[in-house]
Design a protein that fits this description.
Largest sheet of chain A: 7 strands, mixed
Order of helices and strands of chain A: HHEHHEEHEHEHEEEEEH
CATH architecture of the largest domain in chain A: 2-Layer Sandwich
Number of domains of chain A: 2
Strand order of the largest sheet of chain A: 4-10-9-8-5-6-7
Distance between the termini of chain A: 64 Å
Largest interface: A-B, 71 and 71 residues
Number of helices of chain A: 8
Oligomer: homodimer
Number of strands of chain A: 10
CATH class of the largest domain in chain A: Alpha Beta
Strand content of chain A: 15-25%
CATH superfamily of the largest domain in chain A: Endonuclease Chain A
Shape of chain A: elongated
Structural class of chain A: alpha+beta
Radius of gyration of chain A: 27 Å
Chain lengths: 258, 258
DNA sequence: TAAATGTTGTTATAGCAAAAACAACATGAG
DNA sequence: CTCATGTTGTTTTTGCTATAACAACATTTA
């Protein structure tokens, strides 16, 4: 019924990222379980030291998550959880809007201070971050997209974005697998990965090279052991290197298919 | 141009409620101001101790708010502020959804544990909280609404809710002022507040009594000095007391108008 | 070239504030 | 009186903040 611990702890974690402390989360959850409990009951339900319950409840009352009765002993009631969470979210969201606007203004004002950004090579860690950057890169392409792709993740999402761009930019892809039908307006070569690309100490290694408009390059290296990381650059040398790389493998792919 | 301090501090505060620490916020803001800065430049811009900049940047990288170049010295780049804030919000929001669902399930499962809730009187502090509860109370009325209202706040919102209910429940209101046209389906008496209601030590004191379906009562007491607080109850005695109170003043209002 | 200087990235450690945990005491109802 | 409540104060812990020191490397100057 009221399944214990496991789930409860997770909810507490979630509440913490909404700005509550551990105790505030535990007390609130306890109160949701038995509305109208006394301080001592809350203490027993939540495991929070009895003396700590009072200041914690005070804070929850301030945050409009709890109300008090004027009986003796006092009893406490949670606001309906959906209302409570929503009201927390609303306040966070308004902060987010404020921060976004302020930062964006600063960002735009200072955009002119570009300092040879184009000459640098940026490292990106974490699949999520890479995903965002990569899709951003592809969907902002104006002329050409060249992809050399031997990696499991992101395949579907990339294909989806390419579908959207297929009529406005030139697309060429070398990969080992394609999901769905291949559109006529793209040049796709399906190839098993070349030898040398799955050798090495890594259990599962994959890679992808993305060239956009001949001026931007993103390279993804994924291994199960060390996580995924990527490089991005608009630097001449970097782009040229991977353009050569891509030319080599795309011609390899063409030959072998003939 | 780049207006200083004042605004930045506020943005930093907002970022903190999105889960960043003070330093993380300051460093990120500095980076938005000059993208591609070195650690030392960030230190100078943000006021964060140079040695602290490194671990802070590590955390920001983990949170996908910053990427690194592999030059020497390293240079750092912020993700576009709107993307950054959005990605923070997204993660918070997913926590919120999770918490809301989990809590709501617990709440509904445990609803049967009602422990004579109806006999208690609940205190509610803070205008915002009172507002939510009051509007919730009124809009869930099924039979009757009786209001005795001598208070500035909330007038418009209450009227709005009443407009929506005017055809489904019986509405009677005694107050000192009405905004807009008085609908025919409501019984409204406009009266200056009775003597005794604005006496006392408080500079600006106001009150409101709300009786719903003859079984729920909410009483609001507002004073500029001590803030606003409210009582809510479904307790027999409490409701009866304020029903008598309301009967008395509504008959007073009727008489004087004839 | 060699010594002096400065910068970067790292590590260690002390300080601090909020939260957590505990202990002691006053109160009030039965 | 006795028990549970509500309050207060103190200690411990925790995570962020702040400072100092260091090795590695680059730059300057003699």
């Amino acid at each position: 019924m009221v399944e214990p611990g496991e789930n409860q702890a997770t909810i507490a974690e979630s509440l913490k990222s909404l700005g509550l402390t551990k105790y505030e989360a535990l007390v609130y959850i306890a109160l949701v379980r038995v509305a109208g409990a006394t301080a001592t009951e809350i203490h027993e339900l939540s495991g929070v030291p009895r003396a700590s319950v009072y200041p914690v409840l005070d804070r929850l009352i301030q945050k409009n998550l709890v109300s008090v009765s004027n009986t003796s002993p006092k009893r406490f009631n949670p606001v309906r959880p959906d209302e409570g969470v929503d009201s927390l979210m609303k306040s966070i969201e308004s902060d987010a809007v404020f921060a976004r606007e302020g930062l964006n203004r600063i960002y735009l004002e200072c955009a002119h201070l570009e300092r040879g950004d184009q000459e640098l090579i940026w490292s990106i860690y974490g699949e999520e971050n890479i995903r965002i950057r990569l899709l951003d890169l592809i969907s902002n392409a104006t002329e050409s997209i060249r992809i050399f792709f031997y990696w499991g993740g992101l395949r579907k999402q990339i294909i989806q974005v390419l579908e959207e761009k297929k009529n406005s930019v030139s697309i060429e892809v070398v990969t080992d697998h394609w999901e769905g039908e291949i559109p006529e307006s793209m040049n796709i070569w399906i190839k098993k990965p070349p030898r040398g690309h799955d050798i090495g100490p890594a259990k599962s290694l994959g890679g992808g090279v993305f060239l956009v408009d001949g001026s931007k390059a993103m390279v993804i290296m994924g291994s199960e052991e060390e996580g995924t990381s990527a490089l991005y650059s608009e630097a001449r040398g970097f782009v040229r290197f991977f353009t050569v790389y891509w030319n080599f493998f795309s011609s390899w792919a063409r030959k072998k298919s003939q």
